[in-house]
């Protein structure tokens, strides 16, 4: 199945970056940051993003170490992906997010709150890998 509109999440325990992308153009654009409270995502804000953009599928960045092994945040991101799938009944795909924050900092020149640009980089990785 071809997924035209994709919503991507760069999961974190304080902030979750978001980006929207199109498979037709192969492009992604950063969106809002979803804030977390006590390590819990603002599900209402996530639901609003889904209602606004109506994606065909969801992409979640899965953090791993440079050698590809799991780290502390790996399980948390996988759990978040599972929760998205269960709540919103959309296909959810995990993608290796290694170096996405570094890429976001390089693109923006900023050191903080680059989560949505990192989500953009993650989604671009997915779009490039599925063509």
Form type: globular
Indicate the low-confidence ranges by residue numbers. none
What is the CATH architecture term? Answer: 2-Layer Sandwich
CATH class value: Alpha Beta
Specify the oligomeric state: single chain
Q: Look at the helices and sheets and give the structural class.
A: alpha/beta
Summarize the structure.
This protein is of the alpha/beta class. Helix content is about 40%, strand content about 30%. It has four helices and six strands.
Topology:
Layout: E1 5-10, E2 15-22, E3 27-37, E4 40-41, H1 43-53, E5 57-62, H2 72-88, E6 92-96, H3 100-108, H4 115-129
Helix pairs in contact: 3-4
General description of the model:
This protein has 131 residues and is α/β, with parallel strands linked by helices. The chain has one domain: 2-Layer Sandwich (Nucleotidyltransferase, domain 5), CATH 3.30.420. A hairpin with a 2-residue loop joins strand 3 and strand 4. The protein starts with a strand and ends with a helix.
Supply database-style keywords.
single chain, 131 residues, alpha/beta, Nucleotidyltransferase, domain 5, six-stranded mixed β-sheet, 6 strands, 40% helix, globular
